[in-house]
Write a structure and sequence with these properties.
homodimer; alpha+beta; eight-stranded mixed beta sheet
Chain lengths: 189, 189
Amino acid sequence: MNTIPLGIKQSYCSQCSAKLIVATPSGDNKLRYVCSSCSTVFYENPKPVVGCVTEYADRILLCKRSIEPRLGYWTVPAGFMELGETLQQAAARETLEEACATVQLGSLLAIVDVPEAGQIHVFFRGILPDGKFAAGEESLDAALYAPEEIPWSDLAFRSVYIALKQYLAQKAAGTEWVHTDIAYKNRES
Amino acid sequence: MNTIPLGIKQSYCSQCSAKLIVATPSGDNKLRYVCSSCSTVFYENPKPVVGCVTEYADRILLCKRSIEPRLGYWTVPAGFMELGETLQQAAARETLEEACATVQLGSLLAIVDVPEAGQIHVFFRGILPDGKFAAGEESLDAALYAPEEIPWSDLAFRSVYIALKQYLAQKAAGTEWVHTDIAYKNRES
């Protein structure tokens, strides 16, 4: 049984600056941070991370991360979805930011729960019409990898491994579906 | 051009109680609330809402909302995903809370962006093995509706309309896929 809410520890009310207490609000069944003065309840929910597996000339676009976590490891372009955008807009923006590439997005590829990180990871298929890319600010490098060259043991996140394996498996099968999965930390499956 | 971040207005730092300022952090390109004292940056991201279209004896389980927004309108069981749970766990929990029903979840049905609400709505298919349900605390009523009886003009949310239409269309087609869509406020499409 938790004695504080999951997520980031909070001490003061963002609305009135009074101290927060931990309580289960009326009609709720979970502990939340609640303001001791103005009674505002603070909820924290899982965050959507969105990216895409983008192909050009039978190769897949990967970026080497220049920031923590997993600095120096490879990923597909992906990042936190922002308020006001759609999933596809988020995937395209992240590809532009991390790989300086204008992706033409295709269908949904995979949704991976990452419960221990409080995230859901959503991946689309994409193609790079003009073949142009470069390392963005959050990348040390960007490169196109043939399927047999993908650095599987140097991938940044389990969800990226799942998305790339699914992309290749579905391409080999000649059909597309949406894969759903759960990525746990420090486990093989 | 926005002059404050999208989302909920925040005035004080949850970590140290100092006043927040609006600024674009180094390496970022969007306005955020940033602490004037400890420099903590506060991000707000879209929230996942998860539910399911649950069937029993060729009828679909709907709940009449007892809370705002859309009090008195019908919905499939759905609600905000909590930290630490998977999408499927969230859908099952919401069905238990709102319809007192133990759902057996099936495959992913639809993902609907709701950018103006800062939400993504995720729907699964489900069946009710024992046919048991009742109105939960957040419901005025719960009922099984035959497809031709669904109260289309009294549904709570556009995304619920999309999910129910997709469910019936895919059932009529005899095949399943994952529908992706965008729900805008006050628009027909």
